[in-house]
């Protein structure tokens, strides 16, 4: 089972945090690392792993490696469970 969730990421923020989810189901997050040499993407994966309890190896960016708009896959968890852990 794999769940894919859309994210809009703002890199270079003061801290890592989830801002919420919009009416289109896109999760908005801020990441402290800058968008240089994959730093923000790596920090995003670490942050999502901490929030969800899913191993980093089971979270991958399916699309949007160089964009703020990303589709991220979570292996082994359904969408509702992942969203409830991210949003709280």
From TrEMBL:
GO terms for cellular component: cytoplasm. It comes from the Bacteria. InterPro entries: DUF167, YggU-like_sf. SMART domains: DUF167. Gene3D superfamilies: YggU-like (3.30.1200.10). Transmembrane segments: none annotated. Belongs to the UPF0235 family. HAMAP family: UPF0235. This is UPF0235 protein ENG67_04030. It comes from candidate division WOR-3 bacterium.
């Amino acid at each position: 089972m794999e769940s894919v969730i859309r994210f809009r990421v703002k890199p270079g923020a003061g801290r890592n945090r989830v801002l919420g989810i919009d009416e289109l189901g896109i999760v908005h997050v801020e990441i402290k690392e800058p968008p240089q040499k994959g730093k923000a993407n790596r920090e995003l994966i670490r942050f999502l792993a901490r929030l969800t309890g899913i191993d980093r190896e089971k979270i991958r960016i399916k699309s949007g490696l160089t964009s703020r708009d990303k589709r991220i896959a979570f292996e082994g968890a359904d969408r509702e469970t992942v969203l409830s852990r991210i949003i709280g």
